[in-house]
């Protein structure tokens, strides 16, 4: 079963940007006034290609066979058994064969999110037997304890580590990573830049 993790904030803001672009494109087409409209359309296209590359495309994907890290311009596949170590700071860093490192673009943790997670963890620890707090259902309480003091990136990093250890225990082969270029994102940027140049020169 495939599981995909990405930055919720970036994903939502990217779709907000696409809605904004759609409205502006409609307005520029309806009120077309020559070269200025062409340049504006080309600039919107270039910015949209950039938004796709850095906000919509990046994702961390769990598959049965391994970890897929989709960064703006490259996609890396790592078999679970090939993962040697996982560290989490503001981003998740996955170390694999020959001291190579894969830095995942998403999910990331900001300083604000980490501080909020630490406060949440401290609040969980302070709960006493006679506190007059509302009682959570067992499932919600287990989820709260699992996430106490952790950011989303911390939790995803733990899941990667656990899957890698499980694959090694099963004796799976630690095959090398496979990396490929993201031709869709690169193609979009090339086309968008070409449109901007053509609109300026025309």
What does this structure look like?
There is one protein chain. This protein has 202 residues and is of the alpha+beta class. Among the domains are: 1-57 and 182-202, no CATH class; 111-147, no CATH class. 53% of the residues lie in helices and 19% in strands. A 5-stranded antiparallel β-sheet has the order 1-2-3-4-8, covered by helices on one side. A 3-stranded antiparallel β-sheet has the order 5-6-7, covered by helices on one side. It comes from [Actinomadura] parvosata subsp. kistnae. This is Low molecular weight protein antigen 6 PH domain-containing protein.
What would you say about this model in short?
The protein is α+β, with helices and mostly antiparallel strands. The chain has helices spanning about 10-30, 35-55, 110-125, 140-145, 150-170, 185-200, and strands spanning about 5, 60, 65-70, 75-80, 85-90, 90-95, 100-105, 180.
């Amino acid at each position: 079963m495939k599981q995909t993790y990405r930055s919720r904030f970036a994903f939502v803001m990217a779709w907000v940007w696409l809605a904004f672009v759609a409205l502006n494109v409609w307005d520029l087409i309806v009120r077309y006034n020559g070269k200025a409209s062409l340049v504006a359309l080309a600039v919107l296209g270039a910015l949209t290609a950039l938004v796709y590359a850095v906000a919509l495309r990046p994702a961390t994907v769990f598959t049965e066979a391994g970890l897929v890290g989709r960064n703006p311009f490259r996609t890396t596949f790592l078999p679970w058994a090939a993962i040697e170590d996982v560290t989490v700071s503001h981003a998740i860093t996955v170390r694999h064969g020959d001291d190579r490192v894969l830095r995942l673009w998403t999910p990331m943790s900001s300083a604000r999110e980490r501080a909020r997670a630490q406060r949440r963890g401290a609040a969980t620890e302070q709960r006493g037997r006679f506190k007059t707090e509302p009682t959570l259902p067992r499932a919600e309480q287990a989820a709260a304890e699992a996430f106490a003091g952790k950011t989303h990136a911390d939790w995803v990093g733990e899941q990667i580590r656990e899957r890698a250890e499980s694959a090694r225990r099963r004796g799976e082969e630690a095959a090398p990573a496979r990396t490929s270029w993201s031709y869709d994102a690169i193609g979009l940027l090339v086309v968008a830049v070409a449109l901007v140049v053509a609109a300026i020169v025309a």
